[in-house]
Each structure stands twice: as structure tokens, then as C-alpha cells.
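[Solved] Which block belongs to which protein?

Original post:
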Amino acid sequence: MPRPIKDGNNFEINRSIVYNGKDINFHMPSMSACIKHYEIGFQISGSHHVYSTDGEWDILRGYVGTMPLGLHHQTFYTSNETHNSILIKYSFDIADYIKSEISAVAFNRFYAEKYHILNQEDQQVVRNIFEKMLTEYNINSPYSDSKLKALLIYLIIFIIEHELSHDINGSQGKKINKNINNVMRYIDSNYMTDINVDNICKLFSFSSSHFSRLFKQNTGEAFSRYLSKVRLEHAIVLLSNTDKPIDEIAYECGFKSTSYFSYSFKKEFLVSPLKYRHNIQYN
């Protein structure tokens, strides 16, 4: 798996410079997943290709890359140009703080995108923030964590407000329908309860067919898939940071049975919950 942050630290920020793709350490030998931290990176020059269990994509010069928690992936250097990038890793505690500031819905949607495209002017703004965060991380003063937390929140908000749609046609990405956004907020606050299409439609005054179509148009995913991913993300946090039994975690995250939780978890992350917990304890 990607090298985790050292125990007790909230951040790890590094610059990677690879000349002509000769550094074999940049090529991940096999698929792995971020399970103990979140990542966000900026591609200053060069490019790389990402293969994952959820598709494949390129990270090009000027792109901001984000890796969803638990997504198995593998990266390959794809350019003869010098690869220069800055990668920020941060803890679950920092992620929880960001969610409390910008909403978990906005945070989860930001990471679901996997990469973010900006115009030239905004790329420079984002690069400056990454460079400033790297400098502050290396200073390592008693106030560095507070400064880095503030800069990271500003960085994410700036990208959300300025990113272009992935067709790179210069237009802003589509905003989420207000009613669907309210549903997403409701899911994030009530994922542990018995949520289904019928009670959501009743609560928010949708017809079933209209809601299902509108939800997928706005999120890119079916309602059941989105709900499962929210529940599984919370399960990852509990598996990583508590000693709670698997069956307790399953019910606490809204799954009706341990067997269905284990099935859903393995389908999403390619390992069972027990194996996942074992991996993070011994890696």
C-alpha cells in the first residue's frame, strides 16, 4: 500500500522529481490503496497514468490528483519530460475537520472526481499553495499543523470553486441539483439508519422513477451504490481506528447483516474487513 503517515503525525508533504522515468520507485509494482490517510497532489510537470479497480485515467501537467480512500490503484510514469509533483498526505483527523468546515458531501464529491482540471491562471494559484504547504511542512514549527490545516481547507475550496469540467471545454462543471444535494446531506447524517429509495422519496417528495434518474444524473452513481460507498467509508475509519468487532461496525454503519457488510466491503476493496484490519495493523 502507499507508505502511510508516521504515527502521531497529521501531515506528510513531499516533492517527487523523476528524470526520464528512470526512477523505478515511482512505478508502483502492484495495486494498492490508501487506507490510513488521504492524498492530494499537484502535477507540476510530466504525467502519469493510473489504473484502478474503478477505471483508469491520466494525470497531466497542471492537474490536481485525488485518490479516493480504499481505492486499489497502480501508477505508471508516462512522459519523457521530467516528472515534478508535490504530494500531500493527511490524517483522518484532518479529513474530519475539513468535512466539518465544508460539509462531508462536498468533501466526498471532491475525492470521487479523482482528478481536477484548472485554467492556467488558477493552476499557478494552486501550485503556489502546494509550494507554500511544502515549505511550511519543512519548517515544522509549533504552528505548522494549524497553518497547514488552514491552507489545505483553502486549497480544496479554491479547487471546488474554480475547476473545469473534465471535457476541458472551458466551462464550469455542472452544479448538483439543490434537492439532490439535500438528499446527499441527509445520507451523510443518517447513513446508519434504514435508508432506502422509498423513504427518501417520501421524505423529499420525489416519485421513485424521477428520483432515481435525477440522482444518477447529478452524482454519476445509482442511489444504492452511493449509499453503500458512504457507509463503507465510515466502516474504513472504524476498522482503522477502533477495536470494535466486525458485526458491531456493520450495524453501526447501517448494514443489516454482517454477511452483507462483508460482501459489500470485499466487492469494493477486494479484501474482507478482517483482512483489511490485519493489513493496516501489520503494515
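(Second protein starts here: sequence line, then its C-alpha cells.)
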Amino acid sequence: MKMSDLYHMDIYSDNGQYLGDVQAVILNLESGEVSRLLTVPWKNIKGDAKTVLTQKSILYKNVKNVGDVVLVSAPSPASAAASAASKEEINDLSR
């Protein structure tokens, strides 16, 4: 699958909740891997990028499957701890 195929795909949690659609893809240029999927266009982000990255994006490591839609793991208490671990990544992206 090409990265461009992800754009405008619907994103659902594994419990059936609609989370949005893919508007932008953030790459980790050092590893060459997809890091996050944004549900808002990057060009529309004004002001606090950290807020957008924490509230309007999905860590790609939480993606379970990509087919007709993007299926991600539903948020859980364990994922809250994992998102705390990604604060360093968010700080790097928002600089």
C-alpha cells in the first residue's frame, strides 16, 4: 500500500467508534516509518500544534488493520500510559 492510499480513509476504533478520516500523514524521517495519522489537514493547524497532535491524531502503532477503513485499537487506560510515553515525540514534532 502506498502512503497516498491512506488519505481520506475513514478511521474506526475496534469497538466501532468513528474517529474521523485521514487528512495528513506524519512520517518519522529517521526511520522512514509512518508515525501518526492526523484527522485535520496539517495546513489548517494554527496555534498550539501540541494540542492538535494529542487530540486530533492517532499513533500509527495503534493501527490494527488498513483495508477499506483504518482500524485502530480503542483507547484504554493502558493506552493513556503509552500516550504519555509519546509526549517526547509530540514535543519534537511541534518545534
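Accepted answer:
You had them paired correctly. Confirming on the second one: Strands lie at 10-13, 18-21, 24-28, 33-38, 57-59, 63-66, 70-72.
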